[in-house]
Here is the input.
Amino acid sequence: MAHRKKNRNVGIIGIGQTKHSSHREDVNQPELIYEAVSLALKDANLTMNDIDCVVHGNMELFEMVHQPDLWQVLGTGAYGKDCIRITTGGTVGATISCASDNLVASGMYDIVMAIGFEKLQEGHTTGGITNMADPLWFRKIQSGALTGSSAYDVEREFGLERANRASLTYRIIMDKHAGLNPNAHRSFGLEFSQIDDLIRTSPKLVGELKLIEMCSQSDGACCVIYACEKKAKELTKTPVWIRDHISAHKEECFPIFGYDRKYPVLKTHKFAAEQLFKRNNIKNPLDYFDVFEMYDPATWWAIDWLRDFFALKGDEHLKLIEDKEIMIGGKMPINPSGGVIGSNPIGATALLRVAEAALQVRGNAGPHQIPTPVNHALASGFGGTMWTVMTMLEKELNW
Amino acid sequence: MADQFQGIEPMVYQSKINVPYSWWAGDTATRFFVALRDEKKIIATKCGACGKVFMPPRKTCPLCFTANTEWVDVSDEGTVLTFSVARRQLAAIPQDRKVPVIWGLIKLDGADTAILHYLDEVKPEDVIIGMRVKAVFSETRKGTIRDISHFKPVK
Here is the structure.
């Protein structure tokens, strides 16, 4: 969105999501989507007749359904309506949120529904991701979504023991948050006293990246309904306003993780956050935001990215984790929902960040609601070849 | 266009994508297949709002956007809405069916939507739109759509 060019304000008026799980044999893809869509409609007290346009998104190739927006119309409710399909990889959930905001802001539609979904049980993610690269130029070195380079970087900068302990502290905080969220896929009931055991026993996937630190593969769907200011005020007492969003990506795709002292790279998370906060005149995002729903596919990336998003210096990002300031009740609660490590139905995942951040602003997230008022929330999305999407949500229309 | 390849062998990158998938039928389709296999019964879901009967069964009504909770029996007889004749033994045609193979969209009595299946025991030139057909069940049934062998004309 071009900043300050927004034609009219847009609010989130309905939110629905499935229970996320590793196995949903009881439903097919459209049936899974229907669960989220019907919950969002109920939440907004609307029917499909009120929806002007449906924006549909998931990962390409993951379930190997061509034109899933057509096949899934039984669940999306888009029969006879304007429907737009978008796919931008891991960020797709965030991108359909941005697109829905833009579609309403433009005046084209008053009420737009965004639907993100994935049924990862049915597909093969690495098979899909590998086909992202040009076969003439070493496609086969693509490894999919696993990388241990961030672990290596944190380790090199802060020493193995501190790095590992920070990573597992982050992991256990996410587990505790997921334990409060009835929709989360995984919560093991981990305790901080288990950190040393987990460092020793969790299987290593790549380098220091351990199984326990990686996100899950989930089945799930999320649906969010957006309305123009006039309709939003008519239809709900608690609209959540979209203040701004930003998307950033890089031309080159591989040097995307980590800080190399000799060859520093400007990462899209850092770049996007700087631009977004600067143009919204936010001097200290750590003070400004009350919650951050961050797309955190693995603990090491989460650690690294906290520094990027909040422009932290030295070991400030590690201290936030070590002091448990990222827990519900802390200075900057990260992912009260349990985050991506807790649940990862990829096409829905980035939309879930927006949805969960909006629930926090509304104040009715459920057992994982932050006890203090949430007026300003931040959500991020992340995807292949380093895409960043950030969304700012506000309780009041006063910026 | 052809000239540019004169005297040279174009280098073509040969590749293959092989990705395993496993799609779940879900409870609704499963109930239909189980009835077909165990009872030779054809069952369908019905919309509680508009009354439409869905064959194959759908969990939701796309028009009313409500969950279909009611199940009804539909007839094993119906009407051919349209058809197509396959005359080449391509991969989509199972080995045990020999061309010409006739595909029909059949609206079973009691249903509002049509199901795709084979028409057999009839010559392609004798099939007409609107003809009445009846399901012939397979001897061995495994809980798939081919538990119905084919549809044959009602004499």
Observations:
- Chain A touches chain B through 32 residues (CB under 8 Å).
- Chain A has a mean pLDDT of 92.
